[in-house]
Amino acid sequence: MKSTLRFLARSLVRLALVGALCWAGWWLLMDADSPLPPEWHPLEPLDVAAPESWLTGMKLRRAVSSEATCLSALGTGARFEAMPPLRAGACGIDPRVSLRGVGDADLVPVETTCAVALRLAMWERHVLAPAAETHLGSGIARIHHQSSYNCRPIRGSTTRLSTHATGEAIDVRGVTLADGRRLELRESWSGAGAVSDFWQAARDGACTWFVTVLGPDYNALHADHFHMQSRGWGLCR
Ligand SMILES: [Zn+2]
User: Fold this and answer.
1) E strand or H helix at 86, and its extent?
2) Å from CA of 127 to ligand 1 middle
3) Which residues surround ligand 1, an ion (CB under 5 A)?
4) Sign of the CA dihedral running 184, 145, 152, 75
5) 7, 141, 191, 228: which could join 210 in a potential S-S bond, CB 3.0 to 4.6 Å?
6) pLDDT (tens digit per residue) in 156-176
7) Which helix (H) or strand (E) holds 78?
8) CA 65 – ligand 1 centroid, Å
């Protein structure tokens, strides 16, 4: 009898605990008054301008998984036009956008995939602009690129298509700071000093938001730009 009562009491306590946990989970995740800030809420979509959290990488991967979620996330931190897909044999851009600005930085309009545009916006917001403020005391007014889409094989190959052939990469060669200084990667990558520190931070941080990043440390072909791509084998150099 005693052991039956003990068993019942323990079962009731367990049931109450499970109920409380379910209620807390529902309140945190589903309730409109959830106290979780959006960047910590796993069901909230990516907002480019939101502070980074442990969930931001997961939110970015989810955002780039479909055209609708990507365009919606891009709208939180970029100026762009959505365009119909470009299809040219094995080459093309889909989903395709014409991007003319990310965060505070303008761009010469560039046609690229939504994923590259979104990753560039995350890089500008969470890496490039903070690094410019830290090392150079200024914001970023403009990002200079060498385009994204180019229907060509990978350099050194005659058959394998470059990620540029599908608009899944962008080449960045320099920036103009908000104070008017123009910085070219080729001229200021190496050596000691604040500008070089800025570029190193920009490259290192790019690896968080892009899948593969190749710069001057990789080889001479990349001496004057960062090649940043939205898929690949995860190299960061
Ligand atoms: Zn490239």
Assistant:
1) strand 86-88
2) 20
3) 169, 171, 227
4) positive
5) 228
6) 777 889 999 999 999 999 999
7) strand 78-83
8) 22
